[in-house]
Design brief:
- It is a single chain.
- Helix content is 56%, strand content 6%.
- With 710 residues, the chain is α+β, with helices and mostly antiparallel strands.
- Helix 6 packs across helix 7, helix 19 packs across helix 24 and helix 27 runs antiparallel to helix 30.
Length: 710
C-alpha cells in the first residue's frame, strides 16, 4: 500500500456461505484469536459480536458518519456506539418488466393488478416471484411487505411488534398472493436463483431480488428480458397508515478484532478501503453499491448501476435494517418457521405471528442475563432432581449387579495368571471404548447441565441442573419433532421390512441371473444418502410436481400439478419413498443371510406332510427367520430415529417444521444457534430414546436370540 509502506496486508480466506463463515469467526473469537485484525461481517452480525466483546468500537466522528447511509449505520450501532462501518450495501429490490409494466406500480394493489393482467393476456405462468423458502430470504421478503404496511419486527425500544395488526395484514397479503396464484406456490421452495431463473426466462412480471441479479437479467446471451428491466423498492400498501416503500438491508461491514495486536493499523486499513476512490473502483469492478451518499451525486456511477444514481440512492434511502439484536440469528430462525407455516397453510397468519412474538419475547430476555426460566426452576430442578436421579441410577446399578448371571464354574477355576492374561487382553478394547464412546457421552451429559451459548460468552457457563431438559420437554416443537421421527420410523421401517422380505425371498430362489440381480439391488444402498436425496428432490421439485407429478396426474389421482415439498402432507411422500428405495436392499441382504441359514430339510419334511407355500412361510420361514428380522428391525429403527441427512437435503424439515425430525432440531440448536447446553440436552434425550428402544426390542422380540440350545 503506497500510503502505508510499512503495513503488509494478508488476506485470510473464509467460506463464501454466510452461516459457515459465521461459525468459523465465532469459533476463532471464542478462542481469543488475534487474527484476523479486520473482519468482514454480515450486516446482522455486528450487535452479536459487539455484545460478546469480540469487536472494538470505531473512532468515527459525527462528521465522518454523515456521508454514510443511515440504515447500515443503525445496524452497526450497539448500545449507542458504532462498532463497524459498511463496506458495500445490498438491498432488496423489486425488478419489473418495462414491456409489461411501463410505469412503476404505485402500490401493492397496482403491482398485483398488473401481474394478473399480464398472466391473463400474455399467458405467463407467474405474476410476482419472491424468495419463500424457509431461510433468511423469507424474513427479508416479509420485512419489505411489513414496511409496506408501516410495521416493524422490533421498535426502537426493542419491543416485539411482529404480531401487530400491520404485521398480520402484511403476512395475510403474502398468503393471499400465493392463494390467488399471482405468486406461484413453488415460491415456497425458492431462494434467489430459482426466482431469478423464472423471471429471466420471461415467466414473471415482477421479481423481488438483490442487486447481483441486474447483470444476469440483462445479459442478452442468457436472458429473455434483457434490456426490458427496471428497479424500485417494494411499494407501499394502498391506504396503509405509515406504509412506505421498503428495501431490506443487506451487505458487508468492516470491524476490528477486539484482540487485535494492531488496532491502529486495522483502523487505517478500514479507512483506506472506505475511501471514495476505492469504493468507486469496487462498484465498477464487481457492481457493489458504495455506502457513501456523496458518490451518488454527479456522474461518477453513471453506467455502473441498474438505474440512474439518483434512483438507486432513493432505493438505498428506503433501506430498512433487520432487527438490531445480539440474538438475531436465533430470532430469525424462529420467525422463518412461523412465516413458512402460515404461507404453507399450517397456521393462520395471526396465530403464526402471535407464536413468533411469544418466542421472541422469551428469547430477547436472554440478552445480557440468564434466561428467565432458570430462576423459576429453582433449587429443585438444579440440585434435588439431578441428585435424586443419580441416586436412582446408582440403586439400579446395584440391583443389576446383584442379579447378574452366575459366573461359569470353569472361569472360577482359572488360575490367577490366566485371569490376569484375560484382563490384559480385554483392557485395550475397553480403553478404546471408554475413550471413543464413554468420554464423549459423559462430557455431553455434563455440558447439558450448563447454560452455554457460544454466541453469548458474557453469560458464562452457569450450572443449571436439569433446566435444559425441562425446557426441552416443555417445547411443543420438540414434541412435534419427536412425533415426526416416530412417524417416519414406523412407516419407513414397516415398508422396508415387508419389501425387504419379499425381495429376499425372490433372491433366495434359484433362477437364471440371480447373482447379477443380487448385486444390482444393492446399488441404491451403496449410494451416499445426500446423492439419493438430491435425486429424489429433483424427481419431486420440478415445475408441475416433477416426474412424480406427471405420474399421479396421468393416473388420474390429481387434477392439478402438485407442489410436493410445499405441502405439509405431500412432503412426506418423497421423504419416505427415498428412504425405502435406498434402505430396502440393506434389509433384504440381512434377511437373505437368515434365509440361507435355514436347513432345506425342514421344507422337505413340511412338503411331505402336505404343507402349502403359505403354511411354509408362516410356520417355518418366519419363525426361523426371527433372529434376522429382529436384527434388521433394531438396525433400521435405530437408524430411522437418527434421521438427519436425508431430510436435511430433501425437505430441510419443511414446509414450516412439518417434516422436522429430532436430530435436525438438535443440529440446528447445536451448530446453527450454537446453544451447546440446550443442544447437549437434546442429544442426551435422543440417546436415551434410541438406547431404551433397543432394550425393549431385545427384551420383547429377541429374548431367545442369545440362549443356547436346550
Amino acid at each position: 500500500m503506497a500510503t502505508h509502506p510499512g503495513v503488509e496486508v494478508t488476506l485470510r480466506p473464509t467460506p463464501d456461505a454466510a452461516d459457515q463463515r459465521h461459525q468459523l469467526l465465532v469459533t476463532w473469537l471464542n478462542a481469543g484469536a488475534r487474527e484476523p485484525d479486520v473482519m468482514q461481517l454480515d450486516v446482522v452480525w455486528t450487535p452479536e459480536f459487539a455484545s460478546a466483546g469480540w469487536i472494538r468500537p470505531l473512532p468515527v466522528s459525527k462528521g465522518e458518519e454523515k456521508d454514510f447511509f443511515a440504515a447500515p449505520l443503525k445496524a452497526d450501532r450497539y448500545n449507542g456506539r458504532l462498532y463497524a462501518l459498511p463496506w458495500f450495501i445490498d438491498v432488496g429490490m423489486l425488478y419489473y418488466r418495462t414491456d409489461l409494466s411501463p410505469r412503476a406500480p404505485a402500490d401493492l394493489d397496482a403491482m398485483e393488478r398488473t401481474a394478473g393482467e399480464a398472466m391473463k393476456e400474455r399467458g405467463l405462468p407467474y405474476g410476482v416471484v419472491w424468495q419463500g423458502a424457509r431461510y433468511e430470504g423469507l424474513v427479508t421478503t416479509f420485512l419489505e411487505y411489513l414496511g409496506a404496511y408501516g410495521g416493524t419486527v422490533l421498535d426502537d425500544e426493542q419491543r416485539v411488534m411482529v404480531d401487530s395488526p400491520e404485521a398480520v395484514r402484511a403476512l395475510t397479503r403474502m398468503r393471499d398472493e400465493l392463494s390467488s396464484g399471482v405468486v406461484p406456490r413453488e415460491a415456497l421452495l425458492w431462494q434467489e436463483e430459482q426466482a431469478r431463473f423464472a423471471f429471466q426466462n420471461g415467466q414473471a412480471v415482477f421479481i423481488r431480488n438483490w442487486p447481483y441479479a441486474w447483470r444476469e437479467l440483462n445479459a442478452p446471451e442468457q436472458s429473455k428480458v434483457s434490456g426490458r428491466v427496471a428497479v424500485m423498492s417494494l411499494p407501499a400498501a394502498k391506504g396503509a397508515a405509515g406504509g412506505h416503500p421498503t428495501s431490506a438491508l443487506g451487505g458487508a461491514q468492516l470491524a476490528i478484532n477486539a484482540n487485535s495486536a494492531h488496532p491502529k493499523e486495522a483502523w487505517e486499513l478500514i479507512q483506506f478501503l472506505l475511501a471514495p476512490e476505492q469504493l468507486l473502483e469496487r462498484a465498477k469492478e464487481v457492481g457493489e453499491y458504495p455506502p457513501r451518499r456523496s458518490l451518488y451525486e454527479g456522474a461518477q456511477l453513471g453506467g455502473v448501476l441498474p438505474a440512474s444514481p439518483a434512483k438507486v440512492k432513493q432505493i438505498l434511502e428506503h433501506a430498512v435494517p433487520r432487527p438490531v439484536t445480539p440474538v438475531y440469528a436465533q430470532l430469525s430462525r424462529g420467525l422463518q418457521v412461523h412465516l413458512h407455516r402460515a404461507l404453507s397453510g399450517q397456521q393462520a397468519p395471526e396465530a403464526a405471528l402471535r407464536a413468533a412474538a411469544d418466542e421472541m419475547r422469551a428469547l430477547l430476555a436472554t440478552t445480557g442475563a440468564a434466561r428467565p426460566s432458570f430462576p423459576r426452576a429453582g433449587v429443585f430442578v438444579k440440585w434435588v432432581l439431578p441428585l435424586g436421579l443419580c441416586g436412582a441410577l446408582l440403586l439400579a446399578a446395584v440391583v443389576l449387579w446383584r442379579r447378574r448371571p452366575a459366573v461359569d464354574a470353569d472361569l472360577l477355576g482359572a488360575t490367577l495368571e490366566e485371569r490376569r492374561l484375560a484382563r490384559s487382553l480385554v483392557a485395550p478394547a475397553l480403553a478404546l471404548v471408554a475413550v471413543m464412546a464413554l468420554f464423549p457421552l459423559i462430557y455431553t451429559l455434563w455440558e447439558s447441565l450448563h447454560e452455554h451459548d457460544l454466541r453469548l460468552p458474557q453469560l458464562g457457563r452457569p450450572f443449571v441442573g436439569l433446566a435444559n431438559y425441562v425446557e426441552a420437554l416443555r417445547s411443543t416443537r420438540i414434541w412435534a419433532a419427536l412425533g415426526h421421527t416416530a412417524l417416519f420410523a414406523a412407516v419407513s421401517v414397516t415398508l422396508e421390512l415387508a419389501l425387504g422380505l419379499v425381495l429376499a425371498l425372490a433372491l433366495h430362489r434359484a433362477w437364471r441371473g440371480r447373482g447379477l440381480m443380487r448385486a444390482a439391488v444393492l446399488a441404491p444402498w451403496a449410494l451416499p444418502t445426500v446423492v439419493a436425496a438430491l435425486v429424489w428432490r429433483f424427481l419431486f421439485e420440478q415445475p408441475g410436481g416433477g416426474l412424480a407429478g406427471l405420474v399421479v396426474q396421468g393416473l388420474g389421482l390429481m387434477s392439478h400439478p402438485p407442489v410436493w415439498l410445499a405441502d405439509p402432507a405431500g412432503a412426506w411422500v418423497p421423504l419416505i419413498l427415498a428412504d425405502v428405495w435406498k434402505t430396502t436392499p440393506f434389509v433384504a441382504l440381512l434377511l437373505l443371510a437368515g434365509l440361507q441359514n435355514i436347513d432345506p430339510a425342514v421344507y422337505d419334511a413340511a412338503r411331505i406332510d402336505g404343507a402349502s407355500r403359505w403354511q411354509e412361510l408362516w410356520r417355518i420361514t418366519l419363525p426361523l427367520l426371527r433372529p434376522a428380522l429382529v436384527v434388521a428391525l433394531i438396525f433400521r429403527t435405530l437408524d430411522a430415529l437418527r434421521l438427519f441427512d436425508l431430510v436435511y437435503v430433501l425437505t430441510g424439515g419443511g414446509p414450516g417444521t412439518a417434516t422436522e425430525p429430532i436430530a435436525l432440531n438438535t443440529f440446528d440448536t447445536l451448530l446453527a444457534d450454537m446453544r451447546f447446553g440446550d443442544g447437549s440436552a437434546l442429544s442426551v434425550l435422543v440417546f436415551l430414546l434410541t438406547f431404551g428402544l433397543a432394550l425393549v426390542y431385545l427384551r420383547v422380540l429377541g429374548a431367545d436370540l442369545t440362549r443356547g440350545p436346550r
